[in-house]
Design goal:
Layout: H1 4-18, E1 23-28, E2 51-55, E3 58-63, E4 68-73, E5 78-83, E6 98-104, E7 109-114, E8 122-126, H2 133-136, H3 149-156, H4 163-168, H5 178-188, H6 201-222, H7 230-237, E9 256-259, E10 264-267, H8 269-272
Antiparallel strand pairs: 1-6, 2-3, 3-4, 4-8, 5-7, 6-7, 9-10
């Protein structure tokens, strides 16, 4: 799933390619992609893109002259593919991975695609981004300058969950998912099972520093990379996530995995758990 670094890189890419251009056609191509009906997508046609923003994992394509926001959440298997030209014949709805197409007056534009059979990619056309329920529920953005160490401490106060689950909660902190929570915890040398209530003041500082450095470095790696190559760039820059069985780039120990029903986490025992492998999440008593 695209997370803060990839969505921010897409935002920068679209800001350079969309702003100032007129939208001439918006074609929904799957039944479930559009989550709103008023205003209709046709209201975007003839408007000009004035900016591209981001709310957590959501892209916000703004047409201020029409007072509209096209909010896009790529979900787990969605992606944005830029097109310099389009075939003269519109695609047939329901065929292949295409979910939505946006065509500009200059003939270029983008497709939203979604692989697999589980369709969760979501598009909202709204007058205010806060009208999108997922955006309205978001916690603070970890890259916001106001999100300092003390802001993180206030968020974690009273938390009783393990840190892995807390980091992935979009209502707590916006934009961090499975991959970068693994990377942040590896950088902070913390077990994903560590209870937040056990954090010391120094550990909160360490976690904040790891969060900022991990996300900032990932954005720098992605900056300027074409939209079609961002997924590969993300994978190449990850140290532990998705690397079960490989050597840790810091200490050389073998990266381990804990599997869940619909996801998995990866970690380094030497760097994060005192050399001890974690058991199944429901049975583990290793909470250090």
């Amino acid at each position: 799933m695209p997370e803060v670094p990839e969505v921010e890189a897409l935002r920068e890419f679209l800001d350079a390619h969309l702003v100032g251009k007129e939208i001439v056609r918006v074609l929904p191509l799957t039944v479930n992609v559009l989550k709103t009906y008023d205003p209709p997508l046709s209201a975007l046609e003839g408007s000009t893109v004035t900016s591209v923003g981001r709310f957590g994992k959501y892209l916000d394509i703004v047409a201020a002259d029409a007072g509209l926001h096209l909010a896009v959440h790529l979900a787990r298997a969605g992606w944005l593919r830029w097109k310099d030209t389009f075939p003269p014949t519109p695609p047939r709805p329901g065929k292949g991975p295409l979910a939505l197409r946006v065509v500009l007056a200059e003939g270029d534009g983008f497709d939203l695609t979604e692989a697999g059979t589980t369709k969760r990619l979501a598009v909202h056309l709204v007058r205010d981004p806060q009208d999108v329920p997922g955006i309205a529920r978001l916690g603070p953005d970890p890259l916001d300058p106001a999100f300092d160490r003390d802001a993180l401490a206030r968020l974690l106060a009273g938390e009783r969950r393990q840190i892995k689950g807390a980091l992935r909660d979009q209502r707590l902190i916006a934009g961090i998912g499975n991959a970068y929570s693994d990377e942040i915890l590896h950088a902070a040398k913390m077990s994903p099972f560590k209870p937040v209530k056990n954090f010391t003041e120094d550990e909160i500082t360490l976690l904040h520093d790891a969060m900022r450095s991990t996300l900032t470095e990932a954005i720098e790696r992605s900056r300027g990379v074409a939209a079609g190559r961002l997924k590969a760039e993300k994978k190449s820059g990850l140290r532990v996530h998705g690397r079960k069985g490989e050597p840790c780039p810091v200490c050389g120990d073998t990266i381990r995995e804990v599997s869940f029903s619909d996801s998995a986490l990866q970690y380094c025992p030497t760097c994060q758990t005192g050399g001890k492998p974690l058991a199944d999440r429901r049975l583990s008593r290793l909470l250090k």
